[in-house]
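A quick aside before the break. I want you to see a complete sequence-to-structure record at least once, exactly as it would be stored in a machine-readable document. Don't worry about memorizing anything.
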Amino acid sequence: MKNSNYVIFLALIVSLGGFLFGFDAAVIAGALGPFKKTFPLTALQNGWLVSSPTFSATITMLFIGPISDRLGRKKVLISVAFLYAMSALLSAMAPGVNVLVFARMMGGIAFGAALILAPMYIAEIAPAKRRGQMVSINQLNIVLGFSAAYFANYYLNNWNGDDPDIWRWMLGLEFIPAIIFFIMLFFIPESPRWLIGKGREQEGLDILQKVNGEVDAKQVVVEVKASLQEAKKQAKVPLVELFKPAMKMVLLIGIIVGVLQQITGINCVFFYANTIFEQSGIGSDAAFTQAIWVGLINVIFTFVAMALIDRLGRKPLLLIGVAGVAISMFIAAYGFSQATYTLTQDALTALPAEMNQSGMSTLVGKTFTDDVSFKTAVIDVLGQADASKFESDIIKASVTMNPYLILIGILGFVASFAISLGPVMWVLFSEIYPNWIRGLAISVVGFINSAVSFGVQFLFPLELAHLGTALTFAIYGMFAIVGFLLIAWLLPETKGKTLEQIEKELVGA
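That is the input. The structure line, written in tokens, reads:
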């Protein structure tokens, strides 16, 4: 029991990196609206501000493994925590867009490293029989971080939503869990696997005795040495091996699932949640409330996925979830397609006084049947800066639609993703690739997954501006349909099969 508690203690500390990733990723959803009132953004600037951390995280993932192999997991994790804390402080003090982008890219370096190192450290220190459970703590903490950010944004907005600098509090709040993470990391040991790999076997053995007990620790050291020898062989595998005919099927499956996880728009929903809900005309305050539901649904259905993945299997969960994603996106697309925009004189008078109401008066009484033409007309009379600054107020005053359809569509999408593409992708990656090339394969498809995530986040504001909300969500729904068909056609079920059986089925003897 003592050993068990120690492992849980270590996993909880290290998985704070996952919590900070979730918080850092989601907090921008609430901070974006208040920030735009002080620093109006073009669609291009908006997309870059939100997606820039993913860009730096994607680059970081290419190098963080070798860096941690050289310096040690603990030292790099401490550096990660420091970067999180500095990113939060600099974000809170940013004098403008460029500095905020720099601060967020610093945070991207941190969470790109944390996404790799936190599960790596936990896997290397946890006993084999508890490894899956302990690593899942990190995944759970990621979704808890998302939810915590939405709650924090909601309460800060209720506390002082009229403060033009409220976005500074939202972004700066991350400093508190970051500094806790930084301090607590000094109380964890170095990875015993890394120590043994560096020839510091006695130090590794001492740590393993605390984790596994004295009886099993020496046997674990033997297994670690054997594993390190296997890892050296894997490290020598050239990239070209991944593209040989025998690997064609597993590479194709990995790329399909990796691309599908992001191209259906999940990080647009997480990172732009408030913006999406504001497009339905509920206003910024109600958008904060609805964003909370995104976080809660994500947490709840992540638990559901953890309970079902070994019962139903990987393929059924993926098919159910991706079908739900498609249906949910089409519900949201239909809701937005039914919107009309008409500005009345009474609604114009109720808009903020500092807005150019005389210019907006030319739009009074005109009806627009799509958001793109309406927003274009607003930009023509107000200019890009004021149109961006007052967008939520103007849409709320003008739109006629059913916002509940949007809420149902978005929450259905999050629930469907959380029981399927979210957790199942990484389980599949750990199963379908042969042991001798698994590390290289996961790195390649993980990089593709992250690159697609960046592209989707970056393009989302441009899609809203030029394609409109209805067509944007319909496109995500169509990607989900294509993904559903490919999964049904190509993906075998891996539940209950040994890794050797899976390899024989997909790669050949």
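Two observations worth writing down. The mean pLDDT is 86. The beta strands are 340-342, 367-368, 399-400. We'll return to this after the break.
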